[in-house]
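Hey L., structure's done. Input below.
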Amino acid sequence: MKLSEILHEDQLTELNLKHALAGAVLGAAVGAGAVGAAHHQAPTHKVVKQSQPQQEEFRVKKLTKLVLDKYHHNIKPQEAEKVVKLVIKHEKPTFSAEGLLALIGIESSFDKNAKSKLKADPAIGLTQIRPKLNGLNPTDIQGNVENQIKVTAVKMDHLVKRLGNEQDALHAYNVGIKNVLHPDREGAKLNPEYFKRWKSEINRYI
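Output:
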């Protein structure tokens, strides 16, 4: 495949992702992530399926406690429970609620007011989404915890399907998909410690 063809494919990938993220904010993309997931590598951890209210209640309590054990200085118990319920609501077969909690931990330490130091298009919120980079309106993300979690769940679902595994998807979330697809290109930036930190975090929840 020629380089021009690869770059064109990357541009289409980014365009499709931005459309998906924008759709997530509007509610159109919620629940769409399950399609085609069976054709890709399964996550390295199992997604717990709730068939009874008691099982879901136990899961919420367990995950909330684990969040508060480490991040009680940044989030109140009621807010932690809300976040846990939202990651369960928006988890995908490709990327679990536990995976989302681990991502939130390394991105913001569960500080909903976290904001990066970038002057242009700073990353904001629990999942440190950069709105403009992802084709989103900042006002739809700022202060809206559910939208932050929803668009991140959609983005991770897209990246896992595109790249075939969680590790590459997480690298892409951190440094951008082009850097993962073309690590040898001039100016490419990679962060091998990111996945290690995420793996350490998720081990607390599973």
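The CA atoms of residues 66 and 204 lie 7 Å apart. Residues 1-7, 28-40 have pLDDT under 50 and may be disordered.

-- N.
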